[in-house]
Amino acid sequence: MRAPLVAGDSNCVANIYSNAAGGGGPLTIRGHMNKKGLLVLTSLAVLAACGKQEEPPVMARADWVLESRVAFFENDAKTPRLAPRENLRLWVPYVVGDLYGGPNEGEFAPVALKPDLSFSLDLNKNHEKLAKALVPTEFSQKWMTIEPTSARVARLSPFVMPVDGIAPVGMCEWLDTDTGDKLMLVYVDRPARIRGEIVYDGRNLRFDIETKEAGYIWIRQPEGSGEYRVAPWPGRVLLAVMPG
Q1: I need a labelling partner for 217 at 20 to 30 A (CA). Which of 22, 23, 74, 234 fits?
Q2: In angstroms, how far apart are the furthest CA atoms of the chain?
Q3: What is the pTM of this model?
Q4: In this structure, is the dihedral angle defined by the CA atoms of residues 101, 124, 150 and 221, taken in order, positive or negative?
């Protein structure tokens, strides 16, 4: 996708020691520790242990599982063309801290490409790893801004490559199969708004992307002049590969 130019734990109850009168005598509790005090400290210890338990995993979202396929098109993203005869694979890295540019974070979970070029992409598997990999947002396109500035973003940037090669076989774009719109798949870590406006190559481009919650969003890309905005979650998407 090309951008426009431009304190070690201690147990307080463990004050139990062998009776000093005899090396092998029975264990006794120090005299100043009465039953009430022991009960309170024991309760506190139990509560502290409970507080250290790991939080339950986030519930997986069904709409974050994409059933898709790779399709080859001419530059218009409409005219089909023949797929290469060689065996192909998917590489699904991320651009973190920006919407444009080359990937700067790797693939978190391999995505298998079937012989019929279909694949299943489960974004739930990547979620926790992606959250740890996010960096402060710093757009390479300086006319773009994000509010709040503490919000962090990442764009999924898939590539189709030969099984035994590292050179992409074309430029990839997500397509909504029902509308034909080009889409970007972006993750935002909190409610945020991305804005910007520029005239590029005779096109008036405006960004007004707002999300009310953290998570993945689809962004519609205009063909000519127009607005980049959040799109409804598509029913079906293709990973289109154009010459490039």
Answers
A1: 74
A2: 95
A3: 0.76
A4: positive
Q: Which domain holds residue 77?
A: 62-242
Tell me the Ramachandran region of residue 58: left when phi exceeds 0, alpha when psi lies from -120 to 50, beta otherwise: beta
Radius of gyration of the chain (CA): 27
What is the CB neighbour count within 10 angstroms for residue 146?
Answer: 21
22 and 129 co-located in one domain: no
20, pLDDT greater than 70: no
- Specify whether the CB–CB gap between 198 and 3 falls below 8 A: no
Cα–Cα dist 83/162, whole Å:
12
> Are 100 and 32 contained in the same domain?
no
Q: Are 103 and 93 in contact (CB under 8 A)?
A: yes
* Domain presence at residue 176: yes
154, 186 in Cβ contact below 8 A?
A: yes
The label of the residue with tokens 């978190």 reads: 108
What are the pLDDT digits (tens) for 143-171? 999 999 999 999 999 999 999 999 999 99
The reply to whether 87 and 107 lie within a common domain is: yes
Query: What phi and psi values does residue 127 have, to the nearest 5 degrees?
Result: -60, -55
Residue 81: count of CB within 10 angstroms of its CB: 13
Q: Which helix (H) or strand (E) holds 37?
A: helix 35-51
